[in-house]
Automatic annotation (TrEMBL):
<dbReference type="InterPro" id="IPR041233">
    <property type="entry name" value="Melibiase_C"/>
</dbReference>
<dbReference type="GO" id="GO:0016798">
    <property type="term" value="F:hydrolase activity, acting on glycosyl bonds"/>
</dbReference>
<dbReference type="InterPro" id="IPR013785">
    <property type="entry name" value="Aldolase_TIM"/>
</dbReference>
<dbReference type="InterPro" id="IPR017853">
    <property type="entry name" value="GH"/>
</dbReference>
<dbReference type="InterPro" id="IPR013780">
    <property type="entry name" value="Glyco_hydro_b"/>
</dbReference>
<dbReference type="InterPro" id="IPR002241">
    <property type="entry name" value="Glyco_hydro_27"/>
</dbReference>
<keyword id="KW-0732">Signal</keyword>
<dbReference type="Pfam" id="PF16499">
    <property type="entry name" value="Melibiase_2"/>
</dbReference>
<dbReference type="Pfam" id="PF17801">
    <property type="entry name" value="Melibiase_C"/>
</dbReference>
<keyword id="KW-0326">Glycosidase</keyword>
<protein>
    <recommendedName>
        <fullName>Alpha-galactosidase</fullName>
        <ecNumber>3.2.1.22</ecNumber>
    </recommendedName>
</protein>
<feature type="domain" description="Alpha galactosidase C-terminal">
    <location>
        <begin position="377"/>
        <end position="449"/>
    </location>
</feature>
<comment type="similarity">
    <text>Belongs to the glycosyl hydrolase 27 family.</text>
</comment>
<keyword id="KW-1015">Disulfide bond</keyword>
<dbReference type="InterPro" id="IPR006311">
    <property type="entry name" value="TAT_signal"/>
</dbReference>
<keyword id="KW-0378">Hydrolase</keyword>
Length: 450
C-alpha cells in the first residue's frame, strides 16, 4: 500500500515546487520534540456517520472504500473510518438502543458484531477489513467511546494481563449523556491504564491507523485523565495511530493540553447541513487560530455533502453554502472528512471535493489567520508553504448580496497583484490597492495573489 504517495502528489500538484523533502522538513521543524510526527497535515478521508449513522455493514464498507480509493484517494482523501457502534448487533438508526448487547471479547473489549462484519468471526476482529482497506491504498479508522463497556462491568470481566476486573476500574458516575454503552474509567486505579493499553493494543493488532474517540472533549477537565491514557496507550503500541477527540466544544483555554495528547479535536458538537451551524463555525475556527499547525488540528467536523441520513435526503446546503463550507475548511485548515454516501456521489459534489488548488490551501499553507472588517463579512488570509504569494478567502455571511474585500496593505503588500480564482481555475488579471468581489448571500471566493 502507498497511501502517502497520493497526499504528496496532491501537494506537489497544487503548490508548484514543494517537494516531499521540503514538506517533511517543515513538518518536523515545527513539531519540536515530538517523537514522531502524526498528522503533519490536516487528515483527509471519509466517515460513515453522516450517511449510515450506527448501521454500516461490512459489505457497505467495502463498497464505499472501493469507491473512495478510485474517486477520492488520488486527491489525498486516505482515511476510511467506520463510525459508532460497529459492535452493536442491533444498531438501526441515529437512535441508540437503551439496553445494548455489544459484541465483546473475554477481556471486556468491544469487537465487531459478526452479523454485520462477517469477516470478524473467529476472533479476527477488524483485521480482515483493515487489510482490505489497506490493499486499496487507504488507512483504516474506527470510532470508539470513552470508557469501559457497561456490559463488561455487569459481567465483571477480567482486564487483560492484570488481576483486576472491569468493575474495579469503572467510574459509574461518569457516564455519557447521550449514549448508554459505557462507564468512564477511574484513572486513579492501577487497572485503568492497563485497560486502555489493552484496547489500543487490540486496535493496533487489527491494523487500525486512526481512532475517533468520542465523549472525550466535554466536559474536558473531567475527561483529561482518559485523554492522556489513550495517548499513552497509543504510544505503547508502537503503531502510528492518529487520535481524534470528539465531540466538542473543546474549550480553547485547554488548547495547550489537547494538542499534546491528540492530533485532532472537535471544536463544536455535531455539525450538520444547516446554515446557522456553518455560520457559527467561523467564530470557532477564528478562536482556535493559535493552536493550528503540524500535528495539531482543530476539527470543525465532517463535510455533510451529497447523500445523507441513511439515504433519506441530499444535503440541505445550497451550492453557494457548499462552496463556502469547503472554502472555510480549506483556509482554516480543518480536517477534510467527507460524510456523504459515496455510492451516490454526483459530479458537482465530486468537483467540490477534488479541486486541487483549493485542497492545496488546506494541505500546504501557513500563517492562516482571520481579518476583522465589518459585520456580515468574514475574511481569511494565508500563505503558500513554498512562496511569497498570498491566499485570500472572502465570505458573505449575510442574507443579501454584498461586496466583500480587503486592502492589500492589510496583507503587507505594497504593489499591484495578479489574482487567480482558485475555484474557477483561471486568472482574473491585476488589481491595485484592494481585492474585492460582490458575493451572493452565504457565498465565498478564494484567490491566490501573486
Amino acid at each position: 500500500m502507498n497511501w502517502k504517495a497520493s497526499r504528496r502528489d496532491l501537494i506537489a500538484g497544487g503548490v508548484a515546487g514543494l517537494t516531499a523533502a521540503a514538506a517533511a522538513s517543515t513538518a518536523h521543524g515545527q513539531a519540536g520534540a515530538k517523537r514522531a510526527m502524526l498528522a503533519p497535515r490536516p487528515p483527509m478521508g471519509w466517515n460513515s456517520w453522516n450517511s449510515f449513522a450506527t448501521t454500516i455493514t461490512e459489505a457497505q464498507a467495502r463498497d464505499i472504500a472501493t469507491i473512495m480509493s478510485d474517486k477520492l484517494l488520488p486527491f489525498g482523501y486516505d482515511v476510511f473510518t467506520v463510525d459508532i457502534q460497529w459492535y452493536e448487533p442491533e444498531a438501526s438508526s441515529y437512535t441508540y438502543n437503551a439496553a445494548p448487547k455489544p459484541a465483546m471479547d473475554a477481556y471486556g473489549r468491544m469487537i465487531p458484531a459478526p452479523n454485520r462484519f462477517p469477516s470478524s468471526a473467529g476472533g479476527k476482529g477488524f483485521a480482515p477489513l483493515a487489510k482490505a482497506v489497506h490493499d486499496l491504498g487507504l488507512k483504516f479508522g474506527i470510532h470508539v467511546m470513552r470508557g469501559v463497556p457497561r456490559a463488561a462491568v455487569e459481567r465483571n470481566l477480567p482486564i487483560l494481563g492484570t488481576r483486576y476486573r472491569a468493575a474495579d476500574i469503572a467510574d459509574r458516575k461518569s457516564i455519557c449523556s447521550w449514549n448508554p454503552d459505557m462507564y468512564g474509567v477511574d484513572m486513579r486505579h492501577p487497572g485503568g491504564q492497563a485497560y486502555y493499553d489493552s484496547i489500543f493494543r487490540l486496535y493496533a493488532d487489527w491494523g487500525v491507523d486512526f481512532v475517533k474517540m468520542d465523549d472525550m472533549s466535554r466536559p474536558y477537565d473531567a475527561h483529561a485523565p482518559e485523554i492522556e491514557a489513550a495517548h499513552k496507550a497509543i504510544q505503547a503500541t508502537g503503531r502510528p495511530i492518529i487520535l481524534s477527540l470528539s465531540p466538542g466544544e473543546t474549550p480553547v483555554i485547554r488548547g495547550d493540553h489537547v494538542r499534546r495528547f491528540a492530533q485532532m479535536w472537535r471544536i463544536s458538537d455535531d455539525f450538520w447541513d444547516e446554515w446557522p451551524m456553518l455560520e457559527a463555525q467561523f467564530t470557532r475556527l477564528e478562536n482556535w487560530t493559535p493552536y493550528r499547525g503540524p500535528g495539531s488540528w482543530p476539527d470543525a467536523d465532517m463535510l455533510p455533502l451529497g447523500r445523507l441520513a441513511l439515504g433519506e435526503r441530499d444535503t440541505r446546503f445550497t451550492p453557494d453554502e457548499q462552496r463556502t463550507l469547503m472554502t472555510l475548511w480549506a483556509i482554516a485548515r480543518s480536517p477534510l472528512i467527507m460524510g456523504g454516501d459515496l455510492r451516490h456521489l454526483d459530479a458537482a459534489t465530486l468537483a467540490l471535493l477534488t479541486n486541487k488548488e483549493v485542497l492545496a490551501v488546506n494541505q500546504a499553507s501557513r500563517d492562516n489567520r482571520p481579518h476583522f472588517v465589518e459585520d456580515f463579512m468574514r475574511i481569511w488570509s494565508a500563505r503558500p508553504e513554498d512562496s511569497a504569494d498570498h491566499y485570500l478567502a472572502l465570505f458573505n455571511t449575510g442574507d443579501k448580496p454584498r461586496e466583500v474585500g480587503l486592502s492589500l496593505r492589510d496583507l503587507g503588500i505594497a504593489g499591484p497583484v495578479s489574482v487567480r480564482d482558485l475555484w474557477a481555475g483561471r486568472p482574473l488579471g491585476r488589481q491595485t490597492g484592494r481585492v474585492a468581489v460582490t458575493l451572493p448571500p452565504h457565498g465565498s471566493a478564494l484567490y491566490r495573489l501573486s
